[in-house]
Design goal:
Chains A, B: One of its GO terms (molecular function) is D-serine ammonia-lyase activity. Chains A, B: This is Alanine racemase. Chain A has about 400 residues and is α/β, with parallel strands linked by helices. Chain A has two domains: about 15-40 and about 270-395, Beta Barrel (Lyase, Ornithine Decarboxylase, Chain A, domain 1); about 45-260, TIM Barrel (Alpha-Beta Barrel). The first copy, chain A, has helices at about 15-25, 40-60, 75-80, 90-100, 115-130, 140-150, 175-185, 210-230, 245-250, 270-275, 305, 365-370, 395-400; strands spanning about 35-40, 60-65, 85-90, 105-110, 130-135, 155-160, 190-195, 240, 260, 285-295, 295-300, 325, 335-340, 345, 360-365, 375-380, 385. In chain A, helix 4 runs parallel beside helix 5 and helix 5 crosses helix 6 (about 140-150). Chains A and B meet through strand 10, strand 13, helix 12 and helix 13 of A and strand 10, strand 13, helix 12 and helix 13 of B.
Chain lengths: ~400, ~400
């Protein structure tokens, strides 16, 4: 099978060869490898890294990429080489792995509410000459940071997290909590870094116009809170915003200092459905083998323990299946319609592939696919090489890290 | 906080204290441990193991429990001690871990279609004095088994997988494929073990009556295929059926030789919604901490990377959220309504818990929660001890196993 294999697909409007070729996952070299396997196309990965760095550089903001997407020291190294200013993590164990590897600063964009993990991360960061930045959105969290810093005999850098519409973590921008927290921070031994937000609701915005509106709201809310703090005599050193969709579909970064996107290194079908990229930007796919077939379905060896059951980020499911499956033999993708734990059911839609043939599947949500995988395989011009997933929960547990 | 803490819940009909106490996850000892954590109640686990063993023993069938649920050598040891006759796995890497530990036979209830993993498993099994049993539902699969066995210089035990209604893997019971495969098996160096099925559609049957109908159909189909093979002069040594729901809600095992349930060691909210058990049988829960809160939600430190996005087995989602959260402070459970990767959003429904408080969450699907966890923690009369998850993909990858 090659990219030039004859097209046996019979139904559906044929795509132009150029668009179709660009939309396909990179097949080259993957046929020889066992499945299921999570493959990353090196050229697309590097293009994605360069693209977001250009957005940051052109916009005059620092890029602190979120490593929860790849959990890989090698990919974070590529991001750093391209110009990233630090990394962002969403779990203390992830942060610990990147601190040990010397990435600095590490922003833990996740509120800790007990002193112990704070103290452990600060001690570890001190040992490795790394700066770690925390977030807080409650007095309980701030007290945990104070107690943790005291226990570690250090100060700690702290952002106040602001809810800009996801209604997950973050202080209500209209309430007085943010001001109270900032005043407490100013009076403490902790260092106030500024305001941080994550407009994750961009994943539910439906289209690029909707995402632009979310990004504009995020920026406006942060600048409003900054203004209010200034009126209380509190300077805001930094403003930090996140979410891949709201940064791809941005309308400028006036007043913003740094950005923290994660998903952009790989993108996935959620990004395609949102309209922020085409399939030719998807750098991650799952290689699977057809192990059985019946009238309606090909059964492949990638189920929910490989693809995950995610329909999209932040429970923003599209109802469009669990991934898009491509074959070198077909001129259109097929849909992964059901998942068991180790089996995926791909709708045949009139096609006729054999047991043993390969499919490459673009998943809905790349971040959770990486979290499930034992390792990644980098495909670079036909050569395959292993790409370690370093910051796993299991690595964390075995190292007895925070 | 203890089980006897005052009930501050204000709305909803109060459950009787007995039912409510039985339905709660075991809190004892968990408060001291870090979160998120997957905890297993030892007493409930052992009761579940004893219950399924009694179903098998009373029904005169052998129990070959599916270890994809727990991936734990220690729990499989409890199942063996209780009377299990072997184990079932759904991934070659899982099978390899249990072969190395000496469990026999290991049934790989998953069709392999390439010779290499077959040869590797047979060689490994030979080294460890273990019997391994395969399944096939296609000539491609049978050829892979023959080639793999030849490569390993061994014979191989093979079941023919029959589709009894899940329409995933398995030969169509009305087609001639099963007869052709059995004839080929008889003529080969492979050993024909019999017929094997998995009525996974029981998870979508809605209630106990529906499940009974699924189980009856499964049994009838297998016995019909056996009858047809006999008319072709082919003896069927064994019939093997699976799925926890169809075994809990069974109407007898006439003509069946062995059963392969998995989920029953833990059960989960899917089993509760199906009506096959009450919450007092749920032996697995996720311990989480409230890290933030807003008007509508408690935000906890267990997201899709801990609870999974599964709504139920085999894409049989209920739409009832991602888990049921219990607090020692409330007299009713709350619903996990949305998931980010590291955050769960639990609907407050008028309750007033503080940041830092713990919730115990019964997940929708225990098997995928274990697959995500770095380890399990066994709670036994207030004592906590680690419970290794041995057969992970990562363990498999690092051991370079099949």
């Amino acid at each position: 099978m090659s990219r030039r294999a004859k097209r046996t697909g019979s139904s559906g409007k044929a795509m132009s060869i150029t668009a179709e070729t660009a939309a396909r996952p990179a097949f080259e070299g993957v046929e020889r490898l066992e499945t299921p396997l999570v493959v990353v196309d090196a050229a697309r990965l590097k293009a994605n890294i360069a693209r977001m760095q250009a957005i940051a550089t052109d916009g005059g903001v620092a890029l602190h990429p979120h490593i929860k997407t790849h959990k890989s020291l090698a990919i974070a190294g590529l991001q750093r080489d391209a110009g990233a200013s630090g990394v962002t993590a969403s779990h203390p164990g992830e942060a610990a792995v990147f601190i040990r590897a010397g990435f600095s600063p590490v922003t833990l964009a996740y509120p800790l509410v007990r002193p112990e993990p704070v103290a452990r991360l600060l001690t570890l960061a001190g040992e490795h000459g790394v700066r770690v930045r925390f977030i807080a959105d409650s007095m309980t969290g701030l007290e945990a940071l104070e107690a943790g810093a005291a226990k570690a005999g250090q100060t700690a850098d702290v952002f106040i997290k602001v809810d800009v519409g996801l209604h997950r973590c973050g202080v209500d921008p209209l309430a007085e909590t943010g001001i109270a927290l900032a005043q407490r921070l100013e009076a403490s031994l902790l260092t106030f870094c500024g305001l941080l937000s994550h407009a994750g609701q961009a994943y539910g915005a439906g289209n690029v116009d909707g995402i632009r509106a979310v990004a504009a709201t995020e920026r406006r809310i942060l600048l409003d809170v900054r203004e209010r703090l200034l009126r209380h005599g509190i300077e805001v050193p930094l403003t930090s915003v996140g979410s891949t969709p709201s940064l791809i579909a941005n309308d400028g970064f006036d007043g913003i200092d740094e950005i923290r996107p994660g998903n952009y290194v790989f993108f996935d079908m959620t990004a395609v459905r949102l309209g922020i990229v085409g399939r030719e930007s998807l750098s991650l796919a799952v290689s699977a083998t057809i192990i059985s077939r019946n009238r309606d379905f090909y059964i492949v060896d990638a189920g929910s323990k490989t693809l995950s059951s995610d329909l999209g980020a932040h429970s923003t499911g599209s109802g469009a299946g669990f991934g898009e499956a491509w074959s070198a033999e077909l001129d259109r993708p097929l849909s992964v319609e059901k998942l068991s734990e180790e089996h995926g059911m791909v709708a045949r839609k009139g096609s006729d592939l054999e047991i043993g043939q390969r499919l490459l599947i673009y998943p809905n949500h790349a971040c959770v696919v990486v979290n499930l995988a034992p390792r990644l395989t980098l495909l670079d011009g036909g050569r395959a090489s292993p790409l370690a997933i370093d910051a796993t929960r299991r690595a964390d547990a075995s190292a007895n890290a925070p």
